[in-house]
Amino acid sequence: MDRRGRGVTAGGPGLAGAEPPPADSGGFTVDAFHFGRFHLVQPADAGHRAGMDAMLLAATVPDDARGHLADLGAGAGGAGLAAASRVPALAVTLVERSPVMAAYARRSLALPENAGLAGRASVIEADVGLAGAARRAAGLADHAYDHVIMNPPFNEGRDRRTPDALKAEAHAMEHDDLFERWLRTAAAILRPGGQVSVIARPQSLEALLAAFKGRFGGVEVTPVQPRAADDAIRILVTALKGSRARLQLRPAIVIHAAEGRDFSPVMADLSNGRAAWPRR
């Protein structure tokens, strides 16, 4: 992403050497992130497109991370591939329920521009809410991951406004206990001491803390606000499996500089893969 937070369009109606566009995709773009270090094939006019949330989520993975990361609800793979782009020792599994968005993720991995990442990344088409034997059969094994990141559809069902079915699926909860379901899965697939990272609305904090209980501790909450004097519009939350450490509230990430729409220096570095936002 550039300093304004926009992807750079590098493609359009065709993509040489790749599988056909997903059915009913409505066209696609190929967008550069991290100043061209990785690219995403994304729907042009439908579904969820990766942006600020995905880049902030990826930034919670420390620079020296190793092992295997699961990106739950990965969409086209923005957050997972952003983490892999910055952290060379990390393998990434993109987990996505929508067949259309999973197809975009596979097409992203097939891009020549992503050749350096493709050997460390894979796609699992599965519902994050699966439990027990059904989850394991879908490919999400117990205690198999060192890091889990997730950008759940955190809008409540009554907030659903868009007629775009793909976008509605990505943005609005189908179940009131969505955070419980997703964090149950995160706890099951993480190794002891593994880190989970979530980006959500501030209104979701109570539900998140309830779902962490008995599974995760050492919760760190970072507000994300448009400008220094504004209320937070997102929270970035990390926790460790099995930790008993206390909750910490961290200084806010301020998205924009004092004037205009350009990113603040911190946000520009985080969104472009030049810096991480690791735990304290």
From TrEMBL:
Domain named Methyltransferase small is located at 55-208
Q: What is this protein called?
A: tRNA1(Val) A37 N6-methylase TrmN6
Q: Spell out the molecular function terms from Gene Ontology.
A: methyltransferase activity
Please give the start and end residues of each transmembrane region. none
Source organism superkingdom: Bacteria
Keyword annotations: Methyltransferase, S-adenosyl-L-methionine, Transferase
Q: Name one Pfam family in it.
A: MTS
In terms of Gene3D superfamilies, this protein maps to:
Vaccinia Virus protein VP39 (3.40.50.150)
Q: Which organism is it from?
A: Hoeflea marina
Q: Which InterPro entries match?
A: SAM-dependent_MTases_sf, Small_mtfrase_dom, tRNA_Adenine-N(6)_MTase
Biological process (GO) annotations held by this record are:
methylation
Outline the segment boundaries, as ranges, of region: Disordered.
1-23
